[in-house]
Design brief:
about 130 residues, mainly beta
C-alpha cells in the first residue's frame, strides 16, 4: 500500500513558477506509475501528467506541454511537478496518484489509480 502527501502549492502570479512535491510511504513506490491530476472549482478532476515506474516515459495533457515537467526520485520516494509559465486556468487543487499497473493508453484515466493524496491548492492570480 502507498500513502501520498502533496506539498508546495500556494499563490503565484501569472507567468510565475511553482514546484509541487508528493512524498510517498511504502516499500514499493518505485514499482508504481505516478501521476498528477487537478480539480478546479465546479469541474471534474482531470489528468495533468504521468511518469512510469522507472521515469523513462512521461505523459502530459496538451494544455501543460512545454510548461510542466513531471519527475520522480525513487530513492527519496518523491514525485515532483515543476510548473512554469503558470496561467490563471492552472488554478486548482493538485493531487498526486499512484497506480500499480496501467497501460500507456489508459495512463490518463482516473480509475487506473488506486492511491491518492489529499491535494494541494495552487492559485494563479491574473
Amino acid at each position: 500500500q502507498v500513502q501520498l502527501a502533496e506539498s508546495g502549492g500556494g499563490l503565484v502570479q501569472a507567468g510565475g513558477s511553482l514546484r509541487l512535491s508528493c512524498a510517498a510511504s511504502g516499500h514499493t513506490f518505485m514499482s508504481y506509475t505516478m501521476a498528477w491530476f487537478r480539480q478546479a472549482p465546479g469541474k471534474e478532476r482531470e489528468f495533468v501528467a504521468a511518469i512510469n515506474w522507472i521515469g523513462g516515459s512521461t505523459y502530459y495533457t496538451d494544455s501543460v506541454k512545454g510548461r510542466f515537467t513531471i519527475s520522480r526520485d525513487n530513492a527519496k520516494k518523491t514525485l515532483y511537478l515543476q510548473m512554469c509559465s503558470l496561467k490563471f486556468d492552472d488554478t486548482a487543487v493538485y493531487y498526486c496518484a499512484a497506480a500499480q499497473w496501467t497501460s500507456a493508453s489508459l495512463i490518463s484515466a482516473r480509475t487506473r489509480y488506486e492511491y491518492w493524496g489529499q491535494g494541494t491548492q495552487v492559485t494563479v492570480s491574473s
